[in-house]
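Teaching assistant here, posting this on the class forum so everyone can see the example we discussed in section. The complex has two components, and the goal was to see what a joint structure prediction looks like when all of them are supplied at once.
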Amino acid sequence: MKVAVIGGGVAGLSAAYFLAKSGVDVKVFEQKYLLYGASGRNSGGLTLQFNNEPLIRLAKRTLELYDSIQSEVGFNFLLRKDGYVKIASERDEAKLKEEVEFQRRNGVNVELVEPEFVRVLFPDINTSAFSVASYFADGGVVFPWPVVWGLAKGCRELGVEVYDYTPANVELKGNELIVKANGESYKVDYVINAAGAWSNEISKQVGVELGNKVYKEEICVTESLKPYVDPYVMDISTGVYFSQSMRGEIVGGILGSETTTLETKASLDFLTSYAKRITELVPKLRGMAILRQWAGLYDVGRNGMPVIGETKVKGFIQLNGFGRHGMSLALAAGEGVAELIMKGRSSIIEPFKP
Amino acid sequence: MVKIEHGRLQEHPIVDFKRGKEVTIYFNGQPIKAYEGETVAAALYAAGVRVFSRSFRWHRPRGFFCAIGKCSACMMEVDGIPNVRTCKVYVRDGMQVRTQSGLPDAEKDVFSIFDDVIDRVFPHGSHYSKFTTSKKARDFMVKRMRKFTGFGNPPRAVFQGKAEVEEIETDVLVVGGGPGGMSAAINAGKYGAKVLLVDENPFLGGQLIKQTHRFFGSAKERAGTRGIRIAGILEEELNNIENIEVRKETRVFGIYNGEAGAYQRLNDDEGKLLRIRAKKIVVATGAYERTLIFENNDLPGVYGAGGVQTLMNVYGIKPGNTGLIVGSGNVGLILTYQLMQAGVNVAAIVEAMPRIGGYFVHAAKVRRLGVPIYVRHTILKAIGRKSVEGAVIAKLDDRWQPIPGTEKEIKCDFICVAVGLSPTHELLYQAGCEMKFVPELGGIVPLRSKFNETSVKGLYVAGDVAGIEEATAAIMEGRIVGIHAAVTLGYGGEEAKKELEEAVREIEEFRSGPFGERIVNGLKKCTLESEVVS
């Protein structure tokens, strides 16, 4: 069996990794360099705080896989489970409470906590900037780069060809799927469309309308400080989030918004709004220098859900639309897609069928 | 003989140092005497402090290096705010300054032991691949790593400075107030364009202010005048044009689709975020110094020539007792002369090429002063634990390899690397200009039209950022971009168009000599495709 994966991000590499473990001949095509897409540009937040059951299941399995994959491939992803905190101001209190109740009913060990509780986790936070929080102790932060590097290492060790700087086109000839890249044509049994923000275009090539929405999100980091911010903090009322990287930079951003152009230019508007909001939330960050800023693109599937599974074109499989939660969801989704190809079905990805 | 007090030059044959009121700052708790107008880094240096920080990973000592806010070796905690570049902050009475990332401080750091062992135990990148197979080992390693990583201390105080946003609209924004930038501003401004010139320093003139020597070049471009005087002449011209606004201590950090973001420091407690909408932007950010690869090249006491010039000619602080100069280009030769002028010994000049790089007149002057120039030699390593105590040099063979047995130890307490400059191109990359590596021009430079407009429409370059040349050429380039910007905005009419042609012709003539050949060759490689005449 031959499988081509379009996109060398977390989702694509995870699928390739699990397929290769089952002995499948896999090739991964990355249009630019590994880390070029959302997998290399995100802030690495890991959580189970989702508001529907299939996503929680996917995220739970992904957290488990982080443990096993790091051991298998012998790579440290610098993952820290120091907690994931969602904070909200008064107007979003009810929403957050409802979410917490739902998550607890679905077996997620999340707690509704007072601002004072968050201050104990991170003393510099301004408790008057929010009124309530939801705390997930087993969530945390992962450094996305070693995740991609480690998966790629695991893939290569299992014989997967990972081609970077290799844009690929998919063609449908009769019932045959052909991937054109490197000036060559590869006849394959399956194509996995894990191209993130570029998934719509890949899908179009075989005549499948995907309709994922593309979002642009921006992040910046301060100069390095000794680690003192343990949890990942997400303000659902303002969209601002932050955590601290292993190098000590305060990594923060604002939730993205929909865009029609696939460009990743950083903006001054982001920088000014982020600076304003983050210093309200953590006043001691006033006076810190910003080291760099960047933007990334991600795609969101129908109703905000990922799109995972085989399309009307036999052998053409979607593995995209993860929104900003690829790091929390995509490992299990990749495993699910591998299961789907090997066994014909996979219950964990069933709800995300195209 | 030059008189020295508290590490500061008291008399200088060319420069008159005006020092402010005496103040006391506290360095890791110890009082240190300083003068208003001095930067923290300069005051510490004058007080004999050599270790300013420890490197991020191996805890190697880092000292005063670039002096212009670029290298981050001087970052310290100032009044509870971490990661402050002390070469860009002025002393204030009672200021509390602390070193970072060393226990108990940068000087006595116990973690400096890492430098000796870490490479054997944890070679670079091994934190991803060692102790990874069990979850317990990984979690343990991540926890330990978090204990050692990071640079500044978490902020202890809330920065009290006030900052407001100001939105500005202008015809032309000029980034950088060196010879190229000032010339661009003058030439756009004189035809009526509304110009804003910003510079990150509290003074204009760029690197001209370090140049206490007389200029060469054509008479029209002020040959025979000292660099520091040229800066003054240009600044006066700027000030005489009403529609030019100058903002000093204003650092442009990004160009976003024709809008520049900048931070203007007003005083110790106030600043402004500027959002500058400009129809044309001239980037004249100059260059920074290259360094060389040799053992211990990060040791405090290994400097770029510019760092030493800033220390000596701007702050009047003696860099050391005996220096070794690497590189015999004009900068190395002039610096040698300037050091001797300030009463500092120069042990030797080392040059890898088989001949002296700079002008004959400079070399002759240095020779007369009795400084040996070793051609076909290179520096192999710097000696010293926390700062430079000497250097080892050696002769090179025809394949540029050191010849065994020719090593020679030179006694010195600082080393100046003067091996050339590279364009300060970051802003251009960030703005999206098409860039190219052109060795003749000193590094990575933007593609440009013959009027120095880059691939981003309305974005120009002038001076060293366009290619390493000299101040005279920067002034000429500034004139071209300034007039072109004005003309394309509809200012100046026929007269301006005529002057533009003349300016282009003049720079071509200027470069037609033997010294310009290299530049002309370099320029051919970075012409915008749309401009190439086939």
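For the discussion questions: The interface with chain A takes residues 56, 75, 81-83, 101, 127-135, 138, 141-142, 145-147, 149-159, 161, 165, 253-254, 256-257, 259, 261, 273, 275, 432 of chain B (CB under 8 Å). DSSP finds 13 helices and 28 strands in chain B. Think about how each of these relates to the inputs above.
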